[in-house]
Amino acid sequence: MHGDQQLANALRLERAVIPTSQTIRSSSGSASAPAQFTKTAECTRNPSHSLFFYFVVSDDVLCKAGQFPSYATLAQGETKSFRKVLGDERVTELNTAIGLAAHGVGVGAFVYLRRIFESLVEDAHQAAKNGPKWDEPAYLGLRMAERLPLLAGHLPPFLVEHAKLYAILSLHLHELSDADCRASFDIVKQGLFAIAEDRLAERQRQQRAAAASKAIAGYKPPSP
Length: 224
Hints:
Elements: H1 3-10, E1 11-13, E2 35-43, E3 50-58, E4 61-68, H2 71-79, H3 83-86, H4 88-102, H5 106-128, H6 136-140, H7 144-147, H8 157-161, H9 164-174, H10 178-217
Antiparallel strand pairs: 1-2, 2-3, 3-4
């Protein structure tokens, strides 16, 4: 079950009918105490795959109190394929960032996203510095936004085109509140997802090209 749309397509959700506060009763029988209930979502392909959602109703307000498996656990399905192009360590840090954000830790989540971003840039730097015209001291004296164009040939196109991603990360770490970081987390996360998807697409393109080259090289025309 990957992503909101796929989750919606894969799950059969029972509609919850929430009674008014006049009809709510807790286990103790008190009308004023919060009522609690659980809703279950089952996978249509495999009913043993279930999600459990926990709710509390108090004073006509419906509040989601929790779920199992957690959002962070579910998000790992979205990032699993990225291990092929980002590596285990980066994907583990991405999952950690998602888990921290899910628990309301905005700045901590952003620290992990920034680590991933900077490691991608450093990979490109290591590849680029072996070029014949590379000026290492000049590169090290530049700001991150100024470095990206120099690494364009070694970075995913999305990252070069959206250098503002790093500006967002840096700004949130040093100037904005934890609440601001939480509010903007998904924007940066989706940007990193786009970078990983760029890498996946390039990897698949290279694999197809290699397979085609091998097939062409091995082709023998029919004898006349």
